[in-house]
Each structure stands twice: as structure tokens, then as C-alpha cells.
Specification:
The protein is mainly alpha-helical and about 450 residues long. The protein has helices at about 5-30, 35-45, 45-50, 55-65, 70-95, 105-125, 145-155, 160-170, 175-205, 210-230, 230-240, 245-250, 250-265, 270-285, 290-315, 325-350, 355-365, 370-380, 385-410.
Amino acid sequence: MSNTEFGCLIFQLLLLITTAHLLGHLFTKLRQPRVIGEILAGVALGPSLLTHVPHFISEFLMRSHATDASRVSHEAVITFLYNLGLLLLMFASGAETKGLFHRSDRKEIAWLGGVGTGVPFIATMLLAPLLPLTLLMGPVRQRIPVLLVVGIAVAVTSIPVISRMMHDLNILHTRFARLVLGVAVLEDIGLWAVLAVATALAAVGSVPQTTIAVHVISTVLYFGIGMLFAPKLLKRLNRAKWNVLARTAPVGYVVAVLLAYAAVAAALDVSLVFAAFLAGFGMAKDSERLADSLDALKKLSFAVFIPIYFAVVGYRLDLSKSFSFSMLAVFLIGACALKLISAGAGARLGGFSWRDSLNLAVATNARGGPGIVLASVAFDAGIINAAFYTTLVLVAVLTSQAAGVWLEFVLRKGWPLLEGQPAIVPVAPKSGEEEMAA
């Protein structure tokens, strides 16, 4: 790659990062999830918008008169950064699982998670004969992986976007926040395992059933070991006296752990997305010793790589070609109705009032980063087509925005989020590099 070609690539990255941060900051000031601005940055620089402006402008903005060969290499670099941002986002999401479950909250979390997540997912499975899955299928053309993705999309709740919203609204320390985040953690753990099975099935759709079984079993075992045994082993490794890397270069050690998880997953042909989540989950169990290192890695990730990931997500959205308003309307209304009713019923069974149940249901309806990651993973695996990919991303954005607007409305009215808890005055949103609005 020549200096000129490298300069073109740097210019593209400059546009992606600066536009993502500027629009993200704008949406933060508007008390909206930062991720919406970052995705819109990609939309503004992508085919959805640039196809409607003069050709020389689009060439200048994102091609910079590069040669065909350099465009291929640029695409490879941006794809690498996109995937790295996805891994770091999942690592950060896994690291958010520390210290959420208080004994006094377990009963309520069980009801909220069991009913609020289980009912939408099971209902989707039962409604499979009525769903037009062929309209959603990607190149692999397999019904079961598509059905699993639809079930996850209906039931999933975002960890990062909800935690960031609550931080901005000064409610992250409340019992309401603990309940919502506890439910989100349980949901994501279970649903990521289901997505692991879906991607495994999609990857081996045309091979013998024995190979499919081995692939699925290896994926499930990897996930199970990563959840149950690897954190204990990692905790001992973190504290080992011979672990020079952890003592002398803790940030490098954290990255090395992430890469090690990913390397093992690659060897087993397991999706690297799940490896990154499990690496963060393992680190969360012993985060006190490496708290500063985890914080430094998160700051770098949310300053550079994760904005690139969400900007590329927006860049991939060609709303002029792959957007179906009817698909978006039907899925948005159906998914939200099923999730809100189920989560509200779970809250009522957990002993909450009608108003408390509504607040909890709206908060857990935010799909945020996990919804977008689900869309990206399923689309890259060939499970879903471009139109449904666009639908899933837009549903994740719209439900996250709705949750933020509702929570701020409740606080501004002076209503408590939970009965018996003091009302909280919302504070002005904070900006910074580590914007956990994924």
C-alpha cells in the first residue's frame, strides 16, 4: 500500500470516527442513546445517503480517488476494525455482569427474566408455522437458525445501552437499575447460547447430521465451560505469582486473555463473538485486581473501535434497497407487544404494582447493542437477508430510544420508578470517551 493509498484509508477512518463522535455527542445532549448517532454517522456516509448526492462528492468522501486494488485493501482494513470493535463491545458487555445479583432481588429477577424472556422466546417457537420465515432467510436458506434468531430478537434486552441511560439519568445506583440489569444479564447469557447454536447450525447446513451434532455440541460445551469453569481458572491465573504479564503489563494481559479466548473459539469453529463475551464475563469475576486495566481498555474501545463498529453498521444499511416498511412495522409492533406484555406479567407475578411493572417492561424492551450485534452476527453468517438485517437494527435503535424517553419522562414527572423508592431528579447527560450506549 502506497503512502497515497494509506492516506486515503486514514481519511476514511477520520470521517467515520469524527462523524460518529459528533453525532453521538449530539444525541447524548438530546438525551438519546449515543449509539443512534453513531449508526446515523454510517448512514450519512453510506449508500443510503451518498447515492443521492453528486458522484464526485461521494467519491471524495469515502473513496478519495483510490484505485480498485486499494479499495479492496481498504475494505479489508475497515472490516477488520469492524470485527475488532464488535469483539471489544462484547467483551465490555461481558465485563458488565459483576455484582448485579443481590439476594433480596433474586425472586423478582427470576420472575422478570423467566416470564419476560421465556414467554416471548417460547411463543415465537410455537408460532413458527405461522411466521413467513422464507421472507427473512439469508443465503444459507435454513429455517431453524432463522427461527432462533427471530426468537432472540423478540426477547433480548440490552445491557450496555440500559446501563448508560441509567448512568446519565442518575439512577444506576437504584434497586430499579439492579433489577433491570440483572434481568438483562440472565437474558443475554441464555440468548447468546441460543445464537451460538443458530450460527453453528447455519455453518454446517449442508454436511452430514453427525458433523452438525459435533459442531453444535462443541459450541455448547465451549459456552458452558466459559460460563462455569473458565472464570475460576482465570481468577487463579490472574493471581499467580509467575504471571509476569499480569503484573507488568496488565492492559496487555487483558487483551491477551481476550485473544486467547478467541483463538480457542476459532480452533473449535465457534463464533468469536461468544468468545469475547465469555472473556469479559470471566474477567468480571476478578475485576478488582484488574479494574484500572479493564477501564483503560474500555475507554480506548469506546473512543475508537466501537464507534467504528456502529458506524459501519449504519454504513451497511442501504435504506433505498434493503428497507421494507411493512416488515419493520409488523416486527416492531409484534416484538414490542409480546415483550412488553410478558415483562409486565413477570413483574406483576414478582409482586410489583402496575406502574412499576410498566417501568420495568419498557426498560427491558430496549434491545440496543445486543439487538444490533444479533443482526450483524446473523447477517454475516448468512442466516438472515439484508431487509431483515435492516429491520433488526432499526428495531434495536427505536426500542432503545423509546426506553430512554420513557424513563426520563417518569423522572421529570417526579414519579418513583418503584413504589417505596424516593423520586430522583434527572441530571444533564455526561459526555466522554467511554459512552456505554452500545
